[in-house]
Design a protein that fits this description.
With 202 residues, the chain is α/β, with parallel strands linked by helices. The chain has eight helices and eleven strands. Helices cover 32% and strands 32% of the residues. The chain has a six-stranded mixed beta sheet.
């Protein structure tokens, strides 16, 4: 049995379509229901929250899984990154209100869901920052004066523009990655390699 962790939500549906195209499917997995675990032959797939995929894989509950590069950079799990699936392509970026001018003598207040990524980025700039960790609707933070800038995932930039924010710097390309538990890769290498080959072809 090989266990595969899929991220819930929009990215998960895109990734599932890639697996389906490569010849892997689990009946009922994309139906509108609350079921989480699906078995077909000797493969078991399950839905988990995107941020939790690396945890399931690192601890061996899942042999392989699909996680966004953003989550891998933020959590730094001890897993193998096997394949860029090219799904959910977007960028990690710094954004600020239109007309923002950074005063380098002041501590920059940064709102983000990704504090580790933000710290690493601003450390590379030699910038003194104050991290404000939020969960969602980051655009609100600079509008209401909670932060000066945000560090967030940007796809089209529409939400930023609608809230009078603009991208200052896109500094990391992101997409869905196939990851594997290190022990599983050693002991189930034949099956995992077959999955990689079929996904890579498509």
């Amino acid at each position: 049995m090989i266990n595969i962790a899929f991220p819930k939500g929009r990215l998960g549906k895109k990734v599932y379509a890639l697996f389906e195209k490569a010849g892997f499917s689990w009946p009922g997995m994309t139906d509108d229901n609350r079921k989480l675990v699906f078995t077909h032959g000797d493969m078991r797939a399950f839905w988990v929250k995107p941020f939790d995929v690396p945890v399931y894989v690192e601890r061996g509950t899942a042999d392989i899984g699909v996680a966004g590069k953003d989550i891998l950079l933020e959590r730094s799990p001890d897993v193998y990154e096997l394949l860029d699936l090219k799904a959910g392509a977007c960028s990690m970026a710094v954004a600020a209100p239109q007309g923002f001018r950074d005063n380098s003598s002041d501590t920059l207040r940064v709102a983000t869901e990704f504090p580790n990524i933000a710290r690493k980025y601003f450390a590379s700039q030699g910038r003194d920052i104050d991290i404000i960790t939020l969960r969602g609707s980051l655009e609100l933070a600079p509008i209401l004066g909670l932060s000066d800038v945000i560090v967030d995932i940007v796809e089209t930039g529409t939400t930023l523009r609608e809230n009078n924010l603009c991208v200052i710097d896109r500094f990391q390309s992101l997409s869905a990655r196939l990851i594997a538990n290190k022990s599983s890769y050693k002991f189930k290498e034949d099956v995992i390699s077959m999955i990689i080959r079929r996904l890579a072809v498509d």
